[in-house]
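Please check this.
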Amino acid sequence: MKLAPIVLFVYNRPYHTQKVIEALAANELAPFSEMYIFSDGPKQNPNDVEAVKQVRLYIHSLNFFQKINITERAVNIGLSENIITGINRIFDQYNQAIILEDDTLPSPEFLKYMNEALEIYQNESEVGSVQGFQFPINFNKNISSYFDYSVGCWGWGTWKNRWILFEQNGAKLLAQIEQKKLTTKFNLDNTYPFKELLKNQIEGKSNSWAIRWYASLFLNEKLNYYPCNSFIKNIGNDGSGTHNDKTNYSELSFQKKAIAGKIPVKQNQQAFEVVLKYRRKLKRANQKKNFLRKIRINVLGLSK
């Protein structure tokens, strides 16, 4: 099995970066894997300059992997540009890659699972990506993995001939979704406002690469391979990142054993319904939080 390069995007969080790299190093395939690190440059303030300096001092001290390649951005180009140009560069050399950010903590089985899945489905053109993260959901015990059309961005892998489908023009993607009347499906049965996220990117309110990646694979009718138990914990929803929500996924139980089996490439409707049920529950919880927050602000005059 030819191992995929590990691609890690870092910025100004030395603690998170160290935790992620140490977790990667605990994988048995780490000493045989090449690592590519793309370090974004600092914004023009002293705290950011120092934080980026600490990250770079750490990544230059590493010796866990077969080879380490570091790209340091001279200025701050932003998360989206760092990721897009970084992945483009990787696929100038490789046909597959495993992608992580500095808050996606992998399990000791992560690299084994990802490499096996990338090898199994490399010639299955219907498959868009391999996903490492899973919500804390109780699936049917008879399945360990499934296919779905939704796309995550917390510890994932793909191939060069799938990444080429990535469309940077959000307006073009939105026009196709609306023209084909796919909004409800794109929003996962209206359990999450993905279309609004795409609009925000188009209007410059955010600069998400991930929403465009999802839309690109969605419009090309690609399916994505998911584990039923997570190989990733997100440790970044602590207010330290560029984008974060308030849901704590740092306490997830890791998948105990890497299982990347060959299954039919078709959407598992049963698994999909379980995911939708979980997303509806999250949506109701968030609506309740927002409602209570408005009461505190508008009625009680409190800021939080």
In short: Residues 233 and 250 are 5 Å apart (CA to CA). Residues 241-245, 291-297 have pLDDT under 50 and may be disordered.
